[in-house]
Amino acid sequence: MTTATATAEPILNGRTRDVLKRAGNPFRNYFARNPDDEVCARYHVPELFAGERDLLHAIIDLYRYDPGTHSEVVPVLGNKGAGKTHLLHSIKHGTAGQWQLLVTPGVYQKDSDFLEYLLFQIIDTLLGGGKQKGVRPLEYVGDQLVRRLLGVALREMTPADKVELFPPPGLGRWARRLGLGTQQAQERVEWLAENLSGYSSFARMPVPLSRALEEAGLTPQKAFDLLAAHVQKTEAHNTAGLMRRHIYQGFARAALLRDEADLAGFLTFGFAELEFHVRPTRQDLVLALFKTLMEVFRSLKTPVVVAFDQLEDLLLARRSDDAHRTAESFFAGIVQVMHQIDGLCFLIFAERGLWNRFVPSLDGYIQDRLNNPVHVPKQGTVKAIRLEAPSTDLFRRVCEARLRPCLDELPAGGDPVPDVFPFADEQVVRIAKTEPTLRDMLQQCRHLFDHLVYGPDDAPAPVAAPAPAARLPEGFIELLAPTPTESVAAAPTPMPAPAAAELPESRVSEFLPETEPAAEQPVSRVSAHLEEPVAEPTEITLKRVDVVEIVAQPGDEFPMAEEVVARVADVSPPSEAQSTTEEVPPALEPNPGGLTPPARQELAAVAAAEVPTPVPFPAPVVAQEPPAAVVEQPSRTAPAPGELWDQEQRAARRKLEPEGALTGAARELQAGLGAFLSTCHEHGVKVGPWRLQHVVPEFTFGEHPTYGAVTIAHWACKDGQPWKVGIGLFLGRANGKPKDLEVKLGVMSTEPVVVDLLILLRPEDDLAMTGKSKTLWQDAERRGKNVRLEAASLDGLAQLYSFPRWLAAVRESLPEGTPLPNLADLIQEKAEKVLEQVCMPVQG
Hints:
Layout: H1 14-23, H2 38-42, H3 50-65, E1 72-78, H4 84-93, E2 101-103, H5 114-127, H6 137-155, H7 159-165, H8 173-177, H9 182-197, H10 209-216, H11 220-234, H12 239-257, H13 261-268, H14 282-299, E3 304-308, H15 311-315, H16 323-340, E4 344-351, H17 352-358, H18 364-370, E5 374-376, E6 380-382, E7 385-386, H19 392-407, H20 425-434, H21 438-458, H22 525-530, H23 561-569, H24 576-581, H25 597-609, H26 641-656, H27 661-664, H28 666-682, E8 686-687, E9 690-700, E10 709-716, E11 723-729, H29 736-745, E12 757-763, H30 771-782, E13 787-792, H31 794-813, H32 824-830, H33 832-837
Parallel strand pairs: 1-4, 1-7, 2-3, 3-4, 11-12, 12-13
Antiparallel strand pairs: 5-6, 8-9, 9-10, 10-11
Helix pairs in contact: 6-9, 6-11, 6-12, 7-9, 9-10, 11-12, 12-13, 12-14, 19-20, 20-21, 23-25, 26-31, 28-31, 29-30
């Protein structure tokens, strides 16, 4: 139980500490990997960035109430760790605000046309399995579109058509011709039309589409036939009308008959196969489909928001690229789309330093469009939204949200604890006032939680540094002797305790009460023997250190301590000639302390006797009683790259599971394959004897926007010429399958030759070649083309899809300024099957 009214500071006893240990450190995941990370929803605080969220909702609503609004850019700026990704997650998945199609690209394809890149990002989001505000975009848009079109079709029906749709029971054809049952059919049509439009359920949730059709007695197949006939009759026969007709029918088939293949096939293949009087270019096809899709969204008053998050990782995925050139092509592409397409809202979440670094160096015209303010009713003019560090009260609420699941595990009936237990209020306030960003605050809470919960019992005691001893006369070495009651040959000295494991750098000590200073170390016995006054310790500064390495020869013996001491003690005084012509360093003064040679010899003998003889290490002692139960301590560091890999792969698999998701994600998968092979090249991944010499992440060719792209990898073996291997995603279905194969095979006919071997990755559930596809394949083999077909599993495709996001998450988890570690071993372990499929054959 928890309460906020506790006045006495709670005590962290053993039982409470064990409960907190089992619950784990709630501050461990202190950053969001991407806008779909579930950590954001788990620890969401609605009051955090509430003003900024409301302002963004107001900007998005401009495109809802006036769909023809010009496309604009709204920068959301903040330091790294300010909470930009969390804010974007609350807009995409939060309950506040109405639904919008929010597109969050995970990779930037700098070698592709920006309009084409953006179109397929929207198609991937539309057909994928990811949810926004609890519903798939395809399901939401399809439901709204079918309601509107079916309602219009019902109201435009003639009385005879209505009776034909809802025939009264027990009456024959002649009775219907006489007009019997017309009133009943009219009432059912009006009731269904009102329930589809939502007018009959004012201030309540509208009746679900399937339930409304069932209560009206209309089967989904009849509803689809009615809608398809209405669209066929009302839509124009020009290019835009033909595209709208196929899109409407595709959404209706997906919403009513649960068949998404028709829509996925048209958006990736069918739109390029329409009958044109003049064959359009690749860019014209993309622009025509983009405008038609935007018309559909505007008719539903559904805003389309494109949010680029983690701009530094999106643009600088490869540190070897020219950052300025990449940024210039990116922002120039956005400005180009703003001129060609209306109704798009661009949100750019970027670090302030990165924004101030790139934007001022762009062309003046691009700067003017990026800095163009947006006028929001009741909010004023918005040029940019800046995220600042949360206040102390807001940060306390964040801590309460993180700690609440842990405190709920405490046994009932115990002493009440505050909502921020095991922290004290002054510690939370101090962290909030001293840390610059929300992430830094959460990181310090993570260190503090580890110190309070795990530190006292679990952390090994640090080895205290000895206090500086008294200074000896110049030229002498201090040797500590045993106490008078000990003998020189006593039991062996125990090994010193191992030093504590190094933890990430933190400033936890700033938030803890001061401790008593350590006790002073005893005075050296050598100084006492010399009867010298204790000197104050002085700081020693080394200006130069020379390390001399001496290789020991067989048979050589190292001098013992007695010989070293004797040599230091028996330094003979220099001659008078040397003392008058050379300056002797202070460390080699001939007669330190004014001692006579007999006194020096006596001191050397005493010091030599105090050095114990070396003894072997003692044997380990085995405990006779069973060890006590140990509560496992969770990792105190950020998630490991392997753990992030598994998380991103699971999320990608969920998005690719729906029927048309793989087809719609063709270009996104191709971009993921390019990023995967580029990273393998940079980190030296080796497959058998083959190594990558060069990678072209995406090579576009031909006139087909979806299928005309492959990745080129140059695989080289020792003492051999590299093979130029083209790898493509062969994902076309039904009528698109032979067209996809035909376009992909065309890359081998380009001049000059860019591909020696073509590898096509095909989903394993549709690997067989039949009909025209089989003919094309056999014809390529007869012409001497090197082609290979590989069966790709859904897990393997999910690895390619998630790779850019995983790479960004790994970079985000590293401390600022830390370079990316070598990922070769991890990639070879996790993606061994994929590497074998995209590489030259390895002889077993």
